[in-house]
Every structure is written in C-alpha cells, then in structure tokens.
Amino acid sequence: MKTSARLKASLAALTALALAWPALSAPAANAAPKKPAKPARATTVVVLTFDDGDASNVTAARMLQRHGMRGTFYVNSGTIGDEGKLTWRQLAALAKAGHEIGGHTVDHARLDELLPDEQRAQICDDRRALMKRGHRVTTFAYPFGAVDADAERTARQCGYNAARTTYGLRHWGCRTCPAAETLPPADRWELRAPSSVLDSTPVRHLKQQVLDAEKAGGGLVPIIFHLICDGCGQYSTTPERLQEFLGWLEKRRSRGTVVRTMDQVVRGKVRPLPEE
Ligand SMILES: [Zn+2]
C-alpha cells in the first residue's frame, strides 16, 4: 500500500511537471496531439464600451485592435452619417474587424421620460435599423443611463439580451459601490458600470477600477468612453490616455484579466424583433 501510494504521488508530481512545462515533455510517437495550452483563467472581464457613435471611435477601434482587443460600440442609428458621427460604412468596418455594434436608441432619447410606445419606437426601431444593415445587435445601452421598469421591459421585448446602465459600480464618485458586476450579471437588464470616463478622469482611476475588481475576486467591469480626441469636450478621452490604459490593461492578462465585448460576456443568440 505504502509503495503504491508513493508511486501515485510520484506520478502526480510527474504529471504536474509535464503540465507546467509542456515543452519539456516530448509526446510519445503515438500520443494524441496536445491541445494548445489554455490561457490563465479569466476572472475579471473588462468590456470597453464607446457610446454615441462619434467619428473618433474609429481611432479607438484601431488602438484596441493593436492590443488584440475588441470593443462594444453603442450607436444611435438615427445619427449615423451625421457630421462628426460614424458612417454606415465605418460601422460595417468596425463589425468586420470583430467589434460589437450595440443599440443606444434612434436619437439618444431619455427613456424614463417617454411613454412605453415611444420607448418601443426608440429601442425597437433603432435595433431594426442596425439589423437591416446586417449587424448582430444583441446588447443595448440606456442613453444617460436613464432607465425605469418600462424601459427594461421594452429592451427585452425588442429582442435584446442585456442592457447597460452608467452607474452602480465603484468609481471616484462612489467608493462604497461594488467593484464589479457579478458574472453572470445579477440583473442583465440593468448591467452596472462605473460612471462615464470624462476628460478630467486620470488613467490611474481607470486602472484602479480594474485593480479593485481583481482584488474583489473578479467580475464584469464595463468602462464607458465617448469621444476619443484631445480637448473636445467633457466626455472625451485623449488618444494618449486611452493608449496608456490599453497598454497597461493588456499586461493584466497574466493576472487573468481579459477584454471581451458585451455580447461575448452575455452570450445568447440573436433574438428576433417583434412584429412592426
Ligand atoms: Zn449616450
């Protein structure tokens, strides 16, 4: 018994060694091909969201791609092609590059001030317009983060799988808020986030949000950007700041922190739109 236990122990040690250093263990000639090594288990999932479809989001998308990341772009279908906004062609290019295109109402309506049928026009018609252009539209963001029970119900009826707010997670304005949304999310119709990134937001605040989530055992951290440009308004982030954050974020992968699109986090198929 004792010998057998010792043998088992050495076998276990050998297996552990082989797993730890796959390069050292030459496979037997007839062994099945090895699966590629799995990356570290993801515990913190960061979703980089860009709201309102500003034309400068093309810059952001390229920066993300250079870091092997993909973002979620919440656009207003009614303003696409307007001056300073993304065009349909640019939107198609974003989707082709692997980014997610999500809905954000037709023209950035404050949903909690609308009647249910007005909400329905804002949310369903927006999703319909994006889907007509061939986009896979599964997640939504409430403009201004303004949501009520009717808006949640309408987002669900319009065929979305989840909807993001702009509040509820820890940031410089709420140190007692939880550091991360749960995975799976506690309420997929009210996905929490730290408040929007502003031109006054230092990169260290963004880093801290991710570090706080890691420290709290992981979860979902959506980060809300708008314009990516220098000195172009309160809701802007300079390309330099975004670059610094992305470079830092990429290195957190070794800590199990990854970047995903909201669609990848929420999963689920593309649900149909209701009848017009
Ligand atoms: Zn917005």
From TrEMBL:
Superkingdom classification of source: Bacteria
Record's keyword terms, sorted: Hydrolase, Signal
Keyword Hydrolase: yes
Pfam families in the record: Polysacc_deac_1 (PF01522)
InterPro entries with a match to the protein in the record: Glyco_hydro/deAcase_b/a-brl, NODB_dom, Polysacch_Deacetylase
Compartment annotation: Secreted
Protein name per its UniProtKB record: Polysaccharide deacetylase family protein
